[in-house]
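Retro notes (design track)

What went well: tokenization of the new backbones is finally stable.
What didn't: we kept losing track of which sequence belonged to which structure.
Fix going forward: every design gets posted as structure first, then sequence, in one message. First example under the new rule, 307 residues:
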């Protein structure tokens, strides 16, 4: 896998925590199964793992370090929770390195657009010291991405990517021009929550009740028209409904970040990236999504945290 042109990324948000896994994903997956999933990922040349300090209630990053980070790419984040204070990025980053048992990370993201220039300047210092290979931003709007790009370019550093919420039913960043801007500037656009916390899976499958399905139950009822379209496309390509959601992103030249805890989930992700959807199928899915009017999470759902 070329880190500059990834086809998919494995998310670690649901790794590690028994409580989180059970409440949000419906089940807990032990470490041995996740190790098997990583073995499967190697077979499919899926090498990028996206992490953050709070994923798995603090355990996910440590798991990566324990399992071994040879021959994989690590994507990590700094999440500002207040206005800039000198040294806060460095201290957080050093904890990350201890978790990963590494002396560098491949991609480091500023996770929220707070005091953008000040936080980025501290990240730039880590980049120049060789501890960060690429710099990205997450949950930024177009204007904020342009600002970040300008700050980085003033130091002759390219903005690697933008990581935002995107799915069939959350295409606002495309409609607002951010996706197109990324493509025009050779900036990778990563999409998290591609499956909308498990809502964009086959409705016919028996799944365990989770807190997310309880919260978004009313919205899920609106998705019947989209489910019909996804099932139709899935049957034509002999793939699953969830693979349709992933393939939709890939056919937009958008990199799906999908939480994978089991080998079959990794395999499903890898095969979904190989599916080519027709223009008519893409239009069918978009029309059905718009008709449903369903909104599981807002595309800019963390804006309330930006001070």
């Amino acid at each position: 896998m070329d880190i500059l042109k990834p086809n998919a990324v494995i998310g670690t948000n649901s790794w590690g925590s028994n409580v989180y896994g059970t409440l949000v994903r419906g089940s807990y997956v032990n470490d041995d199964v996740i190790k098997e999933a990583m073995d499967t990922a190697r077979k499919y040349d899926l090498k990028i793992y996206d992490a953050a300090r709070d994923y798995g209630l603090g355990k996910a990053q440590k798991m990566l370090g324990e399992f071994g980070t040879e021959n994989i790419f690590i994507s990590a984040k700094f999440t500002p929770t207040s206005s800039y204070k000198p040294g806060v990025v460095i201290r957080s980053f050093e904890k990350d390195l201890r978790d990963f048992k590494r002396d560098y990370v491949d991609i480091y993201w500023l996770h929220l657009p707070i005091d953008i220039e000040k936080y980025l300047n501290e990240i730039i210092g880590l980049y120049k010291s060789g501890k960060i290979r690429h710099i990205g931003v997450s949950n930024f709007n177009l204007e904020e991405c342009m600002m970040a790009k300008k700050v980085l370019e003033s130091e002759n550093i390219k903005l690697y990517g933008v990581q935002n919420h995107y799915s069939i039913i959350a295409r606002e960043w495309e409609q607002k021009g951010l996706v197109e801007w990324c493509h025009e500037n050779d900036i990778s656009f990563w999409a998290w929550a591609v499956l909308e916390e498990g809502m964009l899976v086959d409705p016919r499958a028996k799944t365990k009740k989770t807190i997310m399905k309880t919260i978004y139950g009313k919205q899920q009822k609106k998705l019947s028209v989209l489910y019909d379209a996804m099932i139709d496309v899935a049957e034509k390509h002999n793939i699953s409904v969830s693979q349709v959601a992933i393939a939709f992103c890939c056919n937009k030249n958008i990199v799906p970040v999908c939480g994978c805890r089991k080998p079959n989930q990794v395999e499903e992700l890898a095969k979904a990236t190989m599916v080519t959807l027709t223009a008519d199928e893409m239009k069918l899915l978009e029309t059905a999504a718009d008709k449903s009017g369903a909104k599981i999470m807002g595309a800019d759902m963390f804006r309330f945290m930006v001070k």
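Added context from the reviewer: The first strand starts at residue 9 and ends at 11.
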